[in-house]
Design a protein that fits this description.
Elements (H helix, E strand, L loop, with lengths): L2 H17 L2 E4 L4 E6 L2 E2 L5 E4 L2 E13 L8 E4 L3 E7 L3 E6 L6 H9 L2 E6 L4 E5 L3 H12 L1
Parallel strand pairs: 1-8
Antiparallel strand pairs: 1-4, 2-3, 2-5, 5-6, 5-7, 8-9, 9-10
């Protein structure tokens, strides 16, 4: 079998396998640090299984008040997204409009994102702190 035919067969196989995958894309200001308890390489897109998923992220962005300002970083502690994917497909998380350092801190006080599917339908999801996640897991077992 020649190399071109082998490459075409392998590419087709991977395209078929990936067509059934669930992927989640994140904005540039969100760093993915873990998925389901496993360390992540900080990619902006993760492949997930269907069902319940726990994703650890960190928000980070820099804001400058004027051209002479070197900017101020706004970084969150780890935040957690607990979400269930019933359908395969491509999803993306969208941040609310954040124009300033104050907007960023307001967002971190109540971190809500929009989870949008490939058809453009969106739903609000809330990020949790470590304490909120532990409390939810504790009460879920009772």
């Amino acid at each position: 079998m020649n190399t071109l035919l082998k490459t075409a067969l392998i590419t087709g196989l991977f395209a078929t396998l990936n067509a059934n995958a669930t992927t989640l894309a994140f904005p540039d200001t969100i760093k993915v640090t873990g998925v389901n308890g496993e360390h992540n390489s900080h990619s902006q897109m993760v492949d997930l299984q269907q069902g319940q998923q726990l994703i650890e992220i960190q928000y980070h962005d820099i804001f400058a008040a004027n051209a002479d300002d070197s900017g101020a970083w706004v970084k969150s502690d780890p935040l957690y997204l607990l979400v269930k994917f019933a359908d395969e497909g491509d999803y993306q998380l969208e941040l609310p409009q954040i124009y300033s350092e104050d907007d960023a801190y307001d967002f971190l006080e109540q971190p809500m994102l929009t989870l949008r599917n490939a058809q453009g339908q969106g739903e609000q999801v809330t990020l949790m702190t470590h304490h909120q996640l532990m409390a939810q897991l504790l009460f879920a077992k009772q």
